[in-house]
Structures are given as C-alpha cells and as structure tokens.
Amino acid sequence: MTRQETTANALLFLAAGQFSPTNLTAHALERMAADPDLFIAFRDDPAVRPKVVNELLRFATPEVGVTRMTLEDTEVAGTVVPAGSAVYLLLASANRDERVFPDPDRFDYTRSP
Ligand code: HEM
Questions:
Q1: Is 16 near ligand 1, meaning CB less than 6 Å away?
Q2: pTM, rounded to two decimals
C-alpha cells in the first residue's frame, strides 16, 4: 500500500474499531443498569450472553447505517435508484422493522431471529 493508503486504513481502523464497540458496551451497561435481572442472567449464564449481544445489536444498533454504491438501476420498494448512486442503508431502522421483529421496540433476548 502507498503511504496515503496506509494512513487512510489506520484512521479507518481507529475510528471503526473504537466507536462501534464503545457504543455497544455503553448500550449494554445502560440496559443492564435499568434491568438488574438481565445483568444477573448475563453474569451467571454463559448461554445467555450471545443472545443478549445479538439483541443489543438489533435493539441499539451501534453502527447506525452503511453506505453502498448502486452498480445498476435498482428498484427498492417501488422507487428506482439510478446506477451510480450513493445509498445510505439504515441498519438501525431495519432492526426495528415490525414485519421482521414482532413488537420491535421491546428488548427481548429470547426472540429469534
Ligand atoms: C461491537 C463491535 C463492532 C461492530 C458492531 C461493528 C460493526 C461494523 C459495521 C456494521 C460495519 C460496516 C460493514 C459494511 O459496510 O457492510 C463495520 C465496518 C468496519 N469495521 Fe467494525 N464493528 C465492530 C468492531 C470493530 C473493530 C473492533 C474493528 C477494528 C479493530 C472494526 C473495524 C472495521 C473496519 C475496518 C470496517 C470497514 C470495513 C470495510 O469498509 O471494508 N470494527 N463494522
């Protein structure tokens, strides 16, 4: 890689590697502070931990969205996005889609998916 590419990647890793884990950890602490039973379950039952993390990622999505470029005209929900467009996809919104997650505003680590 060129020096410029190395610097750009180092900055990307610094930013990407810091904010998402920080956000997720903060959301986890906030939720467990508000719900001591959740904290106890997380602390005492290793089987519960991945479920809690998955539900935290859905409920309080630490990386709100991602950017993509369309390579061709692409229809999304009746709207054509022209080729070459930058599209910001809201993961946090998708994670609260009531067509996928019943009662989406409820934190429930027993849900599947
Ligand atoms: C809770 C932890 C983390 C979450 C939820 C998370 C989430 C994400 C998401 C959603 C993306 C966008 C992926 C996409 O565009 O499809 C991403 C990209 C990225 N993450 Fe993380 N991340 C986490 C931790 C980390 C850590 C610890 C590092 C590095 C030390 C890191 C480095 C990166 C990099 C370099 C990218 C950009 C990849 C690319 O565009 O090719 N992430 N992350």
A1: yes
A2: 0.86
